[in-house]
Design goal:
About 35% of the residues lie in helices and about 15% in strands. Helix 7 crosses helix 8. It is built from ten helices and ten strands. A hairpin with a 2-residue loop joins strand 7 and strand 8. The protein has two domains: about 140 residues, ATPase, nucleotide binding domain (Nucleotidyltransferase, domain 5, 2-Layer Sandwich), CATH 3.30.420.40; about 180 residues, 2-Layer Sandwich (Nucleotidyltransferase, domain 5). Belongs to the ROK (NagC/XylR) family. InterPro entries: ATPase_NBD, ROK, ROK_cs. It comes from Acidothermus cellulolyticus (strain ATCC 43068 / DSM 8971 / 11B). This is ROK family protein.
C-alpha cells in the first residue's frame, strides 16, 4: 500500500546552485518557506572536473541540511542549476562551456550523476533559467502565471532566461534562453580601433563577449588599458585586474565606467532583440555586475534601459528591475522548480 502523503510542512526540497567558483545551497519547505535567508557558499571545484565537482555538491547538500536541521529522509527532490549550455536533462554540451573547461565535462550527464549520488530525484535548470524563474515569481506574485519576462544574469559568462505565461522556455534541446550567445550589432558600442570581441564559445560579437567577467578579462580591459596609459590596473595580473573593475566603477573610475557602459549597451541591444521576439512584461538584470553599491546598481540599470530601444507602446508597459536576492536567486529558483515537480507528481 502506498503511504499517505506527508503534510506539506514535513517535507523539503534542496536547491543547489553550481557556479564557476562556488556552490550556493538553500532549503525550501513543502508549504513554500525558505529556511535559509543568507548566502551559504562553498567551493564548487568545477575546474577539477566532474568527480571533484560532484563531491563538492554532495558536501554542500549535507551542510545545508545540517544548518537547517533537516534530515535526508525529509528531502523529496533536489533542484540543480549550473551554467550552460546544457540539455534540458542537465547534460553538459559536447562542445564544452564557459565554466566547464575540463575535458571530462564534455557530454557529461551532470543531473543524472548527481541523482545517483544523492538517491533522490534531481530537477535541472541552467543557472539563468533558475534565476529568471525566481525573479519572475517574486516580481509578479499572483500574476506570474499570466506574465512574461526575460533575464540577463551577468557573471563569469552571461546567462539568461525567458519566461512566457509563467513557464520557463527550455526549447527542443533544452538550450533556449542562452542569451549570452545571441549575436548583437556592435555599431555604436565599440570604440574606434577596438577589436571585435571573441566569446569563450568561439563566437564573435555575441552578448557574452562584452557583458561578462570573462569579457572584461579577455576583451575589454586589455583594450581600455591601452587607452589609459599608467592606470593602476596595468600593474596587476589581468585576471586580478578584471576582478577589480567593478570596485573601481563604484568609485567613479573613468576606465571602469567606460567598460560598464559597453556592457550595459550590449545588454540593451540584447533586450531590444527580445522586445521584438516576445515583447515581455519585464526585463531583469542579475549576477555579479549588480552585486554592488545601490548607486552603481541604479546607474547600470538606467544605462541598460536607455540602450533598450522600445516602441512607445512597449515603453508604457515594460518594467526594468534587478533580480531580487541577487546571489541567492539561482538556488532559490531551482528549489522552486523542484517543489513544483513534487507537487505535480513528476
Amino acid at each position: 500500500m502506498t503511504p499517505p502523503p506527508q503534510p506539506a510542512g514535513d517535507w523539503v526540497v534542496v536547491g543547489l546552485d553550481n557556479g564557476g567558483t562556488a556552490n550556493n545551497a538553500t532549503v525550501l519547505t513543502g508549504d513554500g518557506r525558505f529556511l535559509v535567508d543568507a548566502l551559504v557558499e562553498s567551493p564548487s571545484r568545477v575546474t577539477e572536473g566532474p568527480t571533484a565537482a560532484l563531491q563538492a555538491l554532495l558536501a554542500a547538500y549535507h551542510d545545508i541540511l545540517a544548518r537547517t536541521g533537516c534530515s535526508e529522509g525529509q528531502v523529496r527532490a533536489v533542484g540543480l542549476d549550473s551554467p550552460g549550455p546544457a540539455s534540458a536533462d542537465g547534460v553538459i554540451s559536447r562542445v564544452g562551456a564557459t565554466n566547464f573547461g575540463h575535458p571530462d565535462w564534455r557530454g557529461f550527464d551532470f543531473r543524472g550523476e548527481l541523482e545517483k549520488l544523492l538517491g533522490v530525484p534531481v530537477i535541472y535548470h541552467n543557472d539563468g533559467n533558475a534565476a529568471a524563474l525566481y525573479a519572475h515569481r517574486m516580481f509578479f506574485g499572483d500574476e506570474a502565471p499570466i506574465r512574461s519576462s526575460v533575464s540577463a544574469i551577468v557573471g563569469t559568462g552571461l546567462g539568461g532566461g525567458i519566461i512566457v505565461s509563467g513557464a520557463v522556455i527550455r526549447g527542443a534541446a533544452g538550450m533556449a534562453g542562452e542569451l549570452g550567445h545571441v549575436h548583437i550589432p556592435l555599431d555604436g558600442i565599440l570604440a574606434d580601433g577596438q577589436p571585435v570581441p571573441r566569446c569563450n564559445c568561439g563566437f564573435r560579437a555575441d552578448a557574452e563577449s562584452i557583458a561578462s567577467l570573462s569579457a572584461i578579462e579577455r576583451n575589454l580591459l586589455p583594450f581600455w588599458l591601452s587607452r589609459y596609459p599608467g592606470h593602476a590596473l596595468a600593474a596587476l595580473p589581468i585576471r586580478q585586474a578584471a576582478r577589480e573593475v567593478r570596485r573601481l566603477a563604484e568609485q567613479g573610475d573613468p576606465l571602469a565606467l567606460d567598460i560598464f557602459r559597453q556592457q550595459a549597451a550590449a545588454i540593451g541591444r540584447l533586450f531590444t532583440i527580445l522586445a521584438n521576439v516576445i515583447d515581455p512584461d519585464a526585463y531583469f538584470i542579475g549576477g555579479g555586475v549588480v552585486q554592488a553599491t545601490e548607486q552603481f546598481r541604479e546607474w547600470f540599470l538606467a544605462q541598460v534601459r536607455a540602450e533598450t530601444r522600445l516602441r512607445p507602446e512597449q515603453q508604457e508597459t515594460a518594467a526594468f528591475a534587478l533580480t531580487p536576492d541577487l546571489d541567492m536567486a539561482g538556488a532559490r529558483g531551482v528549489a522552486m522548480a523542484a517543489r513544483d515537480a513534487v507537487l505535480a507528481g513528476r
